[in-house]
Amino acid sequence: MKKLGLLLSLLLIGTVAVQAQSKSGLGVRGGANFFTWGGSDVNSNDYNNRVGFHAGIYGNGFVSERFSIEPGLYYSVKGTQNDDMVNSRAVLDYVELPVLFRIYATDGVNLFFGPQASVLVGSSFEADALGNTYGWDTDSINDFDAAVVVGVGYNLPKGFNLQASYDFGINPVFKDSDASVYNRGFKLSAGISF
């Protein structure tokens, strides 16, 4: 709970800083997640992309005409799945705090990158068998996740925007383990700035 409070405090500070800039704005954004586990200890044949979602708020403040800083706060469902006999999967729920640096090639097209900190708010392993879904809570997942985010966005008229990004996890998924297993995946998003 302390970590969630820290994330909310950082978002508040970032939002105040964004509002102090000219051409600033707040917005809402959401979309689909396509995540799996990556790393040197992952056999890519074992894991497939699991479809999840993300939704939240952001603030975008222009530092110059072609550069902005965008903190955000999102709820995001990640994980992975295995197309084995029982369709086993890991479902990982996070509260994410990205801080993105946007470079505008044109008024519409922008490239972005930045760090992202995430706090685990729920995790389970699930499987389907005999027509039922069974779930097990797990304490083996790290409470904190970190990633580098890169992507491309496009601003539409009336404040609408679209973007595609990749989260490159750099903090191991499992705690107390030497295994190199990380959250990795794509996000497709739509948003609107106010």
Automatic annotation (TrEMBL):
Keyword Signal among UniProt keywords: yes
UniProt xrefs under Pfam families: OMP_b-brl_2
Signal peptide start and end residues: 1-20
Keywords: Signal
InterPro entries in the record: Beta-barrel_OMP_2
Domain Outer membrane protein beta-barrel, chain residue ranges per copy: 19-174
Signal in keyword set: yes
Protein name: Outer membrane protein beta-barrel domain-containing protein
Species name: Cyclobacterium marinum (strain ATCC 25205 / DSM 745 / LMG 13164 / NCIMB 1802) (Flectobacillus marinus)
